[in-house]
């Protein structure tokens, strides 16, 4: 496993130095891996210092939460290893005064021992210290008693509640009480799609097969409580929510906040899908979602997966969550737009291309519809091949784009096409909406240009279709600025259009004309394998793109071939 590291034995210190350089309101202790708020008052004037920490590898936790309104200091151990007692004591000395310190500790043995001993040593020096242990992992509810569960991502909620209470100048006893009540109101459960890789070993903590996921894992690369098969995001989220809601005994009408947390290698796209499912799941249970946060807030190195945390709230706790903080890793508001997915109507489409509308005979309409459907199914079937080709020379989305296009075409209503021209115009609208990226505009523009040509005739002939094909291909070249020979879909479409026009002008039977058209498209697509890309994303790769045909050209040859039974 490749890593952007120097010496693995110095990764934590170098990371903290980098984080401190990027956060002007923090400072790094010279002799300990402790990040503290910069500019704290003199000890006698300090408020309660909220301190947390644990092993590194959970970034942005814990150093990322040091700042006004959250942590006064964060103690960072080696990767997945509790910090030493001396480091915790150094953090207390550097940030606390007579008003004392609250230590927020996740329920792992090493953390409890080292933070607990440091608390005793600090008390012996005259610094009041309270310890709050977070044990929010509901996946262990059938394995160990509540007090022995692990502390995981819900700890971030406790940081915020305690930090806001301290910033409001509450006493140590009050801050500790609020933090404990918050910890007791949280339930969290996670899922891993694979293990994570420790910097020193560069080996995964565990490995999962393609048909396995791990439910109920901790945050140190340890395995979960159940290994099961992958499932859609909605089903997986519901599985996690069910355990959380049952453990917290949530009932209709209760107020909650939500945290969807990435474990280090989960992209925002997937986290947002989970957040959607979680919000919908909580609403179905009749719960009032007061706030929601989504992002990587407490990770497990590069583990793919996520956790979901739910916390009960009342007005007082919600006010502490809403209190301002100057911590970049925490998004202040967390306000949730629960109706945001309902949708807002856009302006009217404006209709399809105006043209001569004629009523096609039933058999004509049926043939045209069946031909469109055949092309659509061919693109759906080619998804894997197109994805593979595009991954080698582009961004890998062509297969999924063409599949979406095919599915959209199959969903077009039977009544959409009063004429050939209008059929192509409707197809242009369908593809424009279904295909993102460059393919959508290319195909939509081509179809609109062809539609206008066919609208000139009440009963388009083979010659009219040949002209429309030629104009469509020219439209793509004009829009994209490409020419044949530059490794694009034009390398299949231009020779196909030329072959069709020549055969029609020569008076060939339509079936024969189409046969040479399809063959020209295939040869053109195959020839792109040896072409140097000049436009598009493939051009960034230069010679590295040579060797496989262009995906766009192969897609064009694919749907042209699928039309063959219907061209007669």
Automatic annotation (TrEMBL):
One of its GO terms (biological process) is glycerol catabolic process. SMART domains: Dak2. Keywords: ATP-binding, Kinase, Nucleotide-binding, Transferase. It holds the Pfam family Dak2. The keyword Phosphoprotein does not apply. Residues 7-330 form the DhaK domain. One of its GO terms (molecular function) is ATP binding. PROSITE patterns: DHAK, DHAL. One of its GO terms (cellular component) is cytosol. Residues 366-565 form the DhaL domain. InterPro entries: DhaK_dom (IPR004006), DhaL_dom (IPR004007), DhaL_dom_sf (IPR036117), Dihydroxyacetone_Kinase (IPR050861). This is Dihydroxyacetone kinase. The lineage of its organism: Bacteria, Pseudomonadati, Pseudomonadota, Betaproteobacteria, Burkholderiales.
């Amino acid at each position: 496993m490749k890593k952007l590291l120097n010496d693995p034995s110095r990764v934590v210190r170098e990371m903290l130095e980098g984080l401190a350089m990027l956060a002007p309101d923090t400072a790094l202790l010279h002799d300990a891996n402790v990040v503290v708020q910069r500019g704290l008052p003199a000890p006698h004037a300090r408020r309660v210092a909220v301190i947390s920490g644990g092993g590194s590898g959970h970034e942005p936790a814990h150093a990322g939460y040091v700042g006004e309104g959250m942590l006064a200091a964060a103690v960072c151990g080696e990767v997945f290893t509790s910090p030493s007692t001396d480091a915790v004591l150094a953090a207390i000395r550097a940030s606390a005064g007579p008003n004392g310190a609250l230590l927020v500790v996740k329920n792992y043995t090493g953390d409890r021992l080292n933070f607990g001993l440091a608390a005793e040593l600090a008390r012996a020096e005259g610094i009041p210290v309270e310890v709050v242990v977070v044990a929010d992992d509901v996946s262990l509810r059938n394995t160990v008693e509540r007090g022995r569960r692990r502390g995981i991502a819900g700890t971030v909620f406790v940081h915020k509640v305690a930090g806001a209470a301290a910033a409001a100048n509450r006493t140590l006893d009050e801050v500790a009480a609020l933090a404990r009540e918050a910890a007791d109101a949280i339930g969290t459960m996670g899922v891993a799609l694979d293990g994570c890789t420790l910097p020193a070993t560069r080996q995964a903590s565990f490995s999962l097969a393609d048909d396995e996921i791990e439910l109920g894992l901790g945050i140190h690369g340890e395995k979960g409580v159940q290994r099961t098969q992958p499932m859609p995001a909605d089903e997986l989220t519901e599985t996690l929510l069910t355990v959380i809601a049952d453990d917290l005994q949530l009932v209709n009408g209760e107020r909650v906040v939500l945290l969807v947390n990435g474990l280090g290698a989960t992209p925002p796209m997937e986290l947002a899908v989970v957040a959607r499912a979680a919000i919908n799941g909580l609403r179905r249970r009749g719960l009032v979602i007061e706030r929601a946060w989504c992002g990587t807030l407490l990770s497990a190195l590069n583990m793919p997966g996520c956790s979901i945390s739910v916390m009960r709230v009342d007005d007082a706790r919600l006010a502490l969550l809403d209190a301002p903080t100057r911590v970049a890793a925490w998004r202040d508001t967390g306000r949730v737009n629960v109706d945001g997915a309902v949708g807002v109507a856009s302006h009217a489409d404006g209709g399809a291309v105006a043209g001569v509308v004629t009523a096609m005979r039933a058999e004509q309409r049926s043939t045209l519809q069946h031909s469109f459907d055949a092309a659509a199914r061919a693109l759906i079937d080619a998804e894997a091949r197109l994805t593979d080709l595009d991954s080698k020379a582009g961004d890998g989305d062509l297969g999924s784009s063409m599949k979406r296009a095919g599915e959209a075409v199959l969903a077009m209503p039977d009544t959409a096409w009063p004429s050939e021209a209008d059929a192509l115009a409707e197809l242009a609208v369908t593809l424009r909406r279904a295909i993102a990226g460059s393919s959508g505009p290319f195909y939509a523009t081509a179809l609109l240009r062809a539609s206008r040509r066919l609208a000139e005739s009440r009963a388009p002939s083979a010659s009219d279709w040949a002209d429309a094909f030629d104009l469509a291909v020219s439209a793509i070249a004009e829009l994209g600025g490409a020419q044949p020979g530059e490794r694009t879909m034009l390398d299949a479409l231009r020779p196909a259009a030329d072959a069709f026009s020549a055969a029609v002008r020569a008076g060939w039977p339509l079936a024969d004309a189409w046969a040479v058209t399809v063959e020209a498209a295939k040869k053109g697509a195959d020839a792109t394998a040896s072409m140097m890309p000049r436009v598009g994303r493939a051009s960034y790769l230069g010679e590295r793109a040579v060797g496989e045909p262009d995906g766009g050209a192969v897609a064009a040859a694919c749907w042209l071939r699928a039309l063959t039974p219907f061209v007669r």
